[in-house]
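Cont'd.
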Amino acid sequence: MSRRWQATMLAAFVALIACSSAPRAQTSSLALEQEVRQLGLEQEIRQRAAQIENKLIAWRRDIHEHPELGEQEVRTAALVAEHLRKLGLDVRTGVANTGVVALLKGGRPGPVVALRADMDALPVKEPAGLPFASRAKGKYLGREVDVMHACGHDAHTAILMATAEILTAMKDKLPGTVKFIFQPAEEGPSLYTAFTGKSWGAKLMIQQGVLADPRPDAVFGLHVTSGMSSGRIGYRPGAAMASADELRIKVTGRQGHAGVPWRAVDPITTTAQIVLGAQTIVSRRTDLMKSPAVVSISTINGGSRFNIVPETVEMTGTIRTYDPDVRKGVHADLKQIAENIAASANAKADVEIIELYDVLMNPEEMATRMAPVLGRAADGSIQVVTPSGAAEDFSFFLNEVPGLFFHLGVRGQDTADAAPNHSPNFFIDEKALVVGVRALAGMTVNYLTGTKAD
Ligand SMILES: [Zn+2]
Ligand SMILES: [Zn+2]
């Protein structure tokens, strides 16, 4: 037990004794009793997490060595389902293709808490080095690719497996139900492109009823990051992670001879003007006091020969925002600018925007309530972080149910310039994993024991 935690515990007991010797309002005495009970449960979680830490790390290494792409997490899902069944939980598989959902009923009635981990890996080649480095291959949009857990979802899965084991061991003390959600395809599908109108990952799980029967009252999740030192927790009330959309613009002109361009309509010069016009969306038209925003054109493809004006040029890019209204505005501006610039050149622009992930909004109230729990789980190593430029489909769960998504630092000591998530050199200091377990289990017991069921 850490000294800081011991001190917190002691202070709570002293306060309780002081309360019982002096007459006070009954509500504050109940609140103190509740706090002491919470601290006792957190102590039990800490002990149980320490006892299974080796198992937790072994799971993470096993999953790391055998990574699988979105909607192909067959081995991972089987490993998870087998573990959950052994715990005696009610397990459902095949949710959103490869997702696994399990239900733990506590000893007494109460609210429902959902905990989520994502299971998918990325088409990244892992360098040799770790004894459990991935040598796995997979199919990504029909091509054979190397696969690696370069975003740390191996850690998320192992952390939630351990959390399920601990909470199951404590189930008699839990008033309420815990729903464990092991989600596929957070990074997107790997068998088809995002432009087919299909849903995947969190969104598909929700469409298939993961938030029904029973409906969670709160949902919690985490993401590991090399942006913070190992075991440190970062959270942000409000807009914490960006919305992410993919944009596609097809500019159509009229093909002709590049030596006589006046007899053609040139989609290349039109594209150049659209790229520059798009820069004014953020710099001139977006209320940046309300939300930062990004519009990036990332690919341009067109043309076949030096003396031919091509018929078409295609662009793709991404849009990021932290406010739903700003997001809508950026979409409208992009369409207007692209279509009208094209029209001014007698060309045509078709703009397609695929909304991939919503802004991830942590309700302020939940963040305020859970911050002390997270602080104790991380032995005081906690901070409020700036919004992340990355996106997360956990946002779809938070659209439906209040909750909290936080970041867990996994950066080892000597790597201040550690490789970011998605890099082939992304590295996880495994000492952090147990902190993730303490945090998820701690928030769960806090919510269950401190919330009245409807
Ligand atoms: Zn990722
Ligand atoms: Zn991720």
